[in-house]
């Protein structure tokens, strides 16, 4: 039997939104976020901005797909916010048809790229999309134990300038490696993001800048933001210097970050791992960091007519 999916835009998406938020909240809490942090993540998802289409097969509703096109650093980017087919209708090609419909919808509105943030298993549906990054989190419900004798101390003003230059360069390299932006676009994004995040530099409230040491020798640095989400410290970076890598200090540096998060009163530590950094992804997996979201994207051709 041939199954043909049809798509109808909804004037009232309240029912979809309620189900979407329920599913997203459940996935966030399952990954280790508290209720308040999950609610903040939902606010950032901006479900009220999506255009939602009902997927039907021979007049029967089988699921929904939600899309939006936004401006990202001067580039129109399409986003698939949700794509769900009811369990009783899976395996009939509706998922692929919905993905293709979403890509075409975004392309007709000028998007040159389509992104998706996955919080639930999607089978092979988005395997052709490039992995841009993962948001990872680990619960810190008790004082972490220091590993390999690594300790953390506050960064000094004299150390901050060199650290900032190196951090910007690493951030630009991560963006370019992930394929998210061109080198020029990455430089622009880096300058803007650092200016917004650190308006007062080393003394910006809520941020902690650490120097990691072992046996009295500097081995790396860390940059954390406490209370990034309710009860969650966000790790912008934990960097082990090149000459000290391969000695087990990567996991030890993460433990130092977990100690700082716990000391600040947060119950979880979160990081973004950029696509293409397979070593870091393996390290976070081995350290017990669970995936909150996976970001993937693909280029889409502009319509010829």
TrEMBL record:
PROSITE patterns: GNAT
Pfam families: Acetyltransf_1
Record-annotated N-acetyltransferase domain positions: 7-153, 150-305
Keyword rRNA-binding: no
Keywords: Acyltransferase, Transferase
Acyltransferase recorded as keyword: yes
Protein name (Swiss-Prot/TrEMBL): GNAT superfamily N-acetyltransferase
Organism: Streptomyces achromogenes
């Amino acid at each position: 039997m041939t199954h043909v999916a049809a798509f109808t835009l909804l004037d009232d998406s309240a029912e979809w939104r309620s189900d979407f938020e329920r599913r997203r909240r459940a996935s966030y809490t399952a990954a280790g976020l508290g209720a308040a942090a999950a609610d903040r993540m939902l606010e950032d998802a901006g479900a009220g901005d999506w255009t939602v289409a009902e997927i039907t097969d021979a007049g029967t509703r089988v699921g929904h797909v939600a899309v939006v096109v936004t401006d990202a650093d001067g580039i129109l980017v399409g986003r698939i916010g949700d794509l769900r087919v009811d369990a009783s209708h899976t395996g009939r090609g509706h998922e692929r048809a919905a993905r293709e419909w979403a890509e075409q919808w975004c392309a007709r509105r000028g998007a040159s790229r389509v992104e998706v943030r996955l919080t639930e298993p999607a089978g092979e549906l988005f395997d052709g999309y490039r992995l841009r990054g993962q948001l990872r989190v680990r619960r810190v419900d008790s004082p972490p134990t220091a590993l390999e004798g690594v300790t953390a101390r506050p960064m000094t003003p004299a150390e901050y300038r060199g650290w900032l230059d190196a951090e910007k360069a690493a951030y630009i390299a991560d963006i370019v490696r992930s394929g998210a932006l061109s080198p020029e676009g990455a430089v622009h994004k880096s300058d803007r993001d650092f200016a917004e995040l650190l308006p007062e530099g080393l003394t910006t409230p809520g941020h902690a800048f650490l120097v990691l040491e072992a046996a009295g020798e500097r081995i790396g640095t860390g940059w954390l933001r406490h209370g990034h989400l309710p009860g969650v410290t966000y790790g912008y970076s934990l960097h082990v210097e090149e000459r000290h890598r391969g000695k087990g200090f990567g996991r030890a540096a993460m433990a130092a970050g977990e100690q700082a998060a716990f000391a600040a009163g947060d119950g979880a530590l979160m990081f973004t791992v950029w696509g293409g950094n397979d070593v870091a992804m393996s390290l976070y997996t081995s350290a017990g960091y669970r995936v909150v979201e996976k970001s993937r994207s693909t280029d889409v051709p502009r319509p010829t007519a």
